[in-house]
Design brief:
The chain is α+β, with helices and mostly antiparallel strands and about 280 residues long. It contains nine helices and nine strands. Helix 4 runs antiparallel to helix 5.
Length: about 280
């Protein structure tokens, strides 16, 4: 959805919400008809509120269902299934802005290969192995291929080799070598924060959630805060994962935030030489 004409504190987009608890009754209704929940993709409008530092759900919802059995059925049977699914949808979003689309199933071979290619592209870009422009070009090329299979129902077989060709082309354009800026006095280094997060992930440190009061698992789209071993960390959480660290305070009083971390990003000379 376009954000043209919207203020910075009122950005709207469509986001994946298939795993949200309020949509589980609809997925259960789908499974009661012998169609796996994985066949459904639920996209819902999200509105970013700058002051609240969180997303709010909007009214527009699009549900795409890709299953070989329902794809082969007659329109009358689809109408009956849609009525059952709408009855199971959350009442506040079950209106004219809820749209259901029946799509041709995509072969598992293509889905796995495309997902692997896009994961590799993101991973290598994050590791500073691919320049920004090359990354954007490759991502667009992968998206075009995926739309040809996903939306236009094109045969995926001849397109499979093109996935690796796109990655190979992107790798031919590494970013220019950059040096890190000197760490200002009183600022936390990114590596220190990563070390804290790794200790948590490996079970060597146990964080105490400060916000939200209901617990970390109840935060879907927004900023939460926790403390661990004297550190105070505020991080943005999306669904089940942490997207980025917004602000930190070390036990010795040093601080860091997203802008400061981003200003020091780059491919160290030493890492470049090791490649």
């Amino acid at each position: 959805m376009s954000t043209d004409g919207l203020e910075d504190d009122d950005r709207r987009s469509m986001g994946l919400v298939t795993d949200h608890a309020e949509w589980k009754p609809l997925l259960a209704a789908l499974e009661s008809e012998g169609i796996p929940a994985s066949a459904a993709t639920i996209l819902q409008e999200h509105r970013w509120d700058q002051q609240a530092v969180r997303y709010f759900m909007g009214p527009h919802v699009r549900i795409e269902i890709r299953d070989s059995r329902i794809w082969a059925t007659k329109s009358a049977e689809r109408i009956g299934l849609e009525a059952k699914l709408r009855a199971a949808a959350p009442p506040e979003w079950n209106g004219p802005d809820l749209v259901m689309a029946w799509r041709r199933p995509v072969a598992g071979e293509w889905a796995a290969a495309w997902r692997d290619a896009i994961d590799k592209l993101w991973r290598e870009w994050r590791r500073r192995h691919i320049a920004d422009d090359a990354f954007e070009d490759a991502r667009e090329d992968l998206s075009v291929l995926h739309r040809r299979v996903w939306d236009e129902a094109e045969d995926h077989g001849p397109l499979l080799p093109k996935l690796s060709e796109i990655l190979t082309q992107a790798r031919r354009h590494p970013p220019a070598v950059r040096r890190f800026r000197l760490l200002p006095p009183g600022q936390v280094d990114v590596a220190e924060v990563m070390d804290v997060l790794r200790r948590i992930a490996n079970g060597f440190a146990r964080p105490q959630v400060v916000l939200p009061a209901s617990g970390w698992k109840h935060l879907w789209q927004g900023v939460g805060e926790f403390t661990v071993n004297g550190w105070s960390i505020a991080a943005f959480k999306r669904n089940f994962g942490m997207k980025y660290v917004q602000e930190v305070r070390a036990p010795d009083g040093r601080t860091g935030d997203y802008k400061a971390f981003a200003a020091r990003e780059g491919q160290p000379v030493q890492s470049s030489r090791r490649r």
